[in-house]
Design goal:
DNA binding; OB fold (Dihydrolipoamide Acetyltransferase, E2P); 112 residues; globular; single chain; 9% helix
Length: 112
């Protein structure tokens, strides 16, 4: 059960092509976001859709796979863990973000 303490699985569509960053250290980083949808019916019987965007990052071999095989609009299954971090803007403001650090990805469809 210890592996379930920080485990995330999401299925959604990519909002844009993955952004590839080749670091000076030789490591590869890929960033992208996926949209997941939640549906329900309100009190008047109208269908309501909520869309949530999730920031995803991947490193190494997983990043190389994503760079080659994953594109905007494609539906994917992502497995990973939540990775909160903070950064400082150019204006000196501290910002906080939570990303999913992707360890596995499975394309479930071709580009939409």
């Amino acid at each position: 059960m210890s592996t379930l303490k920080n485990s995330v699985q999401l299925m959604g569509h990519l909002g844009q092509d993955p952004e590839v960053v080749n670091l000076e250290s030789g490591k590869k980083l890929v960033k992208f976001s996926i949209a997941t949808n939640e549906f329900y019916f309100d009190n008047s019987g109208e269908k309501v859709t909520n869309t949530y965007w999730h920031n995803i990052i991947a490193w190494g071999k997983t990043a190389s796979f994503i760079e080659t095989y994953v594109k905007k609009g494609q539906e994917v299954l992502v497995k990973g863990k939540l990775a909160p971090r903070s950064y400082e803007t150019k204006d000196g403001e501290k910002r906080y973000i939570t990303e999913v650090n992707c360890s596995e990805i499975v394309p479930t469809s071709q580009k939409a």
